């Protein structure tokens, strides 16, 4: 299962109005670490479909949202809950480290 993409056009509905926590992976096609972390996020989504939703946002195609959420380096992941950013994770990490960062949501 591959994480679904969100865009400037769908962000409000996909993320800000979502029921439950949504992890948004801010990434770009040219970013090596982004490509490394993507399958890990897909695994976390597949193993926790009822606990967290994982969405991808291409920063090159949606620079307005990258600027709004102050994305200065990628990969950057932000967990939104009830429309607010609750957690920010910067950089590619192994699965166990990401699961630790997301423990409050995956518990």
UniProtKB/TrEMBL annotation:
InterPro entries: Thioredoxin (IPR005746), Thioredoxin-like_sf (IPR036249), Thioredoxin_CS (IPR017937), Thioredoxin_domain (IPR013766). This is Thioredoxin. It comes from the Bacteria. Signal peptide: none annotated. CDD domains: TRX_family. Belongs to the thioredoxin family. Keywords: Disulfide bond, Electron transport, Redox-active center, Transport. Residues 1-107 form the Thioredoxin domain.
